[in-house]
Amino acid sequence: MNTMLRKSVLGIAGLAFTGGVFAGPVAAHADARPVEGKPAAVAVSVQGAQSKIDLNDEQTANAKAIIAATKKAGLPERAAVISIATSLQESKLENLGHLGDANDHDSLGLFQQRPTSGWGTPEQITNPEYSTLAFLKGLKQVDGWQDMPLTEAAQTVQVSAYPDAYAQWEQQATDIVHQHWNS
Fold first, then answer.
1. Which of the residues 29, 52, 91, 124 has an alpha carbon 20 to 30 A from that of 170?
2. For each of the chain's 183 residues, which pLDDT tens digit applies?
3. Are the C-beta atoms of 134 and 122 separated by less than 8 Å?
4. Is the pTM of this model over 0.90?
5. Quick one: which H or E segment has residue 50?
6. Coil, strand or helix: which one is 37?
């Protein structure tokens, strides 16, 4: 195979892989169960079909860490809902380390934040409190975040390739915050 053709084939394969990595979080939700629910007081308006996953002890602990960091930042329950929904979309509330070839660039932690994008060091980004506070710092810079749709607030901070994907987690995030905010 000549060099030009090999480079073209490798380039196309790279694009296909990258597309799979970016589509992975969306495709991973194909098995998530749609749920019906009533918006809690902290939900502005639940948009579209909702997804839900069963949480294990680690995921529940990470959700509680997000809530604790939100309280530490002095922000209301709505900020915790946006944070948890974002983490559900980005990592399923799992504090992900480097995933090798499956990694989306150098994304790490609950929010899939990138050291090369200025979110912090790998050690900081994989610390649930630090990564949540970093996310919340970005959220506080979004004018009117309290009253905008969750997916718009999350997308403004995260700048995801799938900006509408956060909305599907709003009801579960609302339920988690409602369950653990005062515990």
1. 124
2. 444 444 444 444 444 434 444 444 433 333 444 444 433 345 556 778 999 999 999 999 999 999 999 999 999 999 999 999 999 999 999 998 765 555 556 789 999 998 888 999 999 999 999 999 999 999 999 999 999 999 999 999 999 888 899 999 999 999 999 999 998
3. no
4. no
5. strand 50-52
6. coil
